[in-house]
Amino acid sequence: MPHPSRAIATILVAALALAGPAISRPKAPARPQSAASNGSAQRLDLFQRQVEADRNALGIPGLSMVVIEDGDVLSARGFGYADIEHRIPATADTLYHIASVTKTFTSILVMQLVEQGKLDLDEPVSHYSSDFKDDSVRIKHLLSHTSEGTPGEKFSYNPERFEYLKAVLEKKTGKPLRQLFVETFLDPLKMRDSVPGPDVADDDTTWAMLGKANLARYRQNLKNSARPYTYWGDGEIVYPGYPPRDFWASAGLLSTVRDMAKYDAAIDNHVLLKPETLARAWTPFRSNSGQPLAMGLGWYVTDYRGERLIWHYGHWGTGFSALYLKVPARHLTLVAFANSEALADHHYKVGEDVTNDLFACDFINTFVPEVALRGGGSSHAAIPEGIPDSSRKTFTAGPASDCMLSSRTALANWKADRHAKARKAIPLERDVLAAHAGGYKLPHRVITVSQEDGHLYIDVPQGERSELFAETPTQFFLKIRPWTLTFVKEGSKVVRLDILDSGEIVSGPKVD
């Protein structure tokens, strides 16, 4: 997925929607639990209560999940609301942007070509893109996120570099990437509720090769999309707008957890890759010096207390996030999608590791409780719920090795960070606000600032508007982006708008 620090100009071009008025979150409706075996029902009940508690702690309006064990779907359900304004519950069939979980599909496409002898992972990327001036960066470096600096030397997650795999796939197959997704995954696996990018339904001529019936179904599916939200300040839930409508090798697929269960089954049953090929993708990539790194070939690979975890997350910055976690030795899978960034965003506050994630930690401790009993260290961490009394005295954990401690620390740090970054607005007279109204010509389009009923709005993206909040008579902020917008004056007249984001300024002269 495009990283949350994507440049402001790119965001404007992509037409991301910005914040609307704050909304309160009503009490979520109860959702029925899927049938499960007697042995699994107790664990499911425990885990689902933990999921609901974690969702509320992170201010996630809606979340859908599927739990799979030994190839059986133990539970597929929703929590909270897909759309809190219209009180539409989240379900197992709610459609979400899955962001970087898309990369696992791309990895499989690449590894299929390797398996068929049509592609060599040691082939230079320069054969496919003139952006690479020599042969040092190989396809394996893109898959393992080791292409920066000295190729193969270190792991550095970079969706933009991963994106070059699109050119590799399209050149090798002669087909557009979306067509490959449809023909390899969506159609044969009967992932009928998924959509290969929201804009695919906009133009029947461009995407005619996907099939008329498919395009009609994609348009219908999009009506079941979750509405995106973000967490601001001390728990204000704000509408941030939808992600870009395009489709990439690194992000863009929309899916449901029920469809993801079909994808997961195809992986485990080796419908998509042979066992030896999958094992290669799920083996930590080794650096030039022989050290195992964080990823295999398109998948994160983590050893947690002797248990191999295969996973990927999705993160749009605001609005949507995802978690796909497998415990292969136990034949266990968790897929969770949310209409907020918080599902994935909070674990960054401790580190980019799935064991820092609240939902992943609760899943592991509930379904593989013996893992919680392994390891040493401090005994000050909380003991996971569900550990038998006879075993609780043996539970020890340290900050570096216990997901209970690290994930709860991540939650606390994340909420504290949101609180610290909240900015205080001041009231301004209507005539002061009116002086800022008008058009401003940015590099890619003219944006409009308007004043209405004592509030100032900006039409980013086109077709929507977001409220601006004043810190001074000329400096404003948005609740869903760390932007500072400064209206520059010459004398008493506003002549320019400067938008500052992550150290970069984009300016636009006023064009009344």
Would you write up a description of this structure?
The protein is α+β, with helices and mostly antiparallel strands and 512 residues long. It has two domains: 31-422, Beta-lactamase; 430-509. It has 16 helices and 20 strands. It has helices at residues 8-14, 38-57, 102-115, 139-144, 159-162, 165-173, 177-186, 212-222, 257-268, 275-281, 342-345, 358-367, 369-372, 389-392, 403-421, 430-434; strands at residues 62-69, 72-83, 88-89, 96-97, 195-196, 230-232, 236-238, 253-255, 300-304, 307-315, 321-327, 332-338, 438-441, 446-452, 455-458, 466-470, 475-477, 484-490, 493-501, 504-509. The strands form four sheets. Strands 13-14-15-16-17-18-19-20 form an eight-stranded antiparallel β-sheet. It has a seven-stranded antiparallel β-sheet with strand order 3-2-1-12-11-10-9, sandwiched between helices. The protein has a three-stranded antiparallel β-sheet with strand order 4-8-5. β14 (446-452) and β15 form a beta hairpin. α2 (38-57) packs antiparallel against α12 (358-367) and α3 (102-115) crosses α6. 45% of the residues are buried.
- Helix count, per DSSP? 16
Question: Into which percentage range does the β-strand content fall?
Answer: 15-25%
CATH topology of the largest domain: Beta-lactamase
> Averaged pLDDT, please?
89
What distance separates the N and C termini? 37 Å
Oligomer: single chain
What sort of overall outline do the alpha carbons produce when their principal axes are compared?
A: globular
Low-confidence stretches: 1-36, 376-400
- What would you call the structural class? alpha+beta
Determine the CATH superfamily of the largest domain. DD-peptidase/beta-lactamase superfamily
Strand order of the largest sheet: 13-14-15-16-17-18-19-20
The CATH class of the largest domain = Alpha Beta
Give the % helix: 25-40%
Largest sheet: 8 strands, antiparallel
Taking all Cα atoms into account, the compactness measure Rg is 24 Å
Q: What is the second-level CATH architecture of the largest domain?
A: 3-Layer(aba) Sandwich
| Number of E-state strands | 20
Number of domains: 2
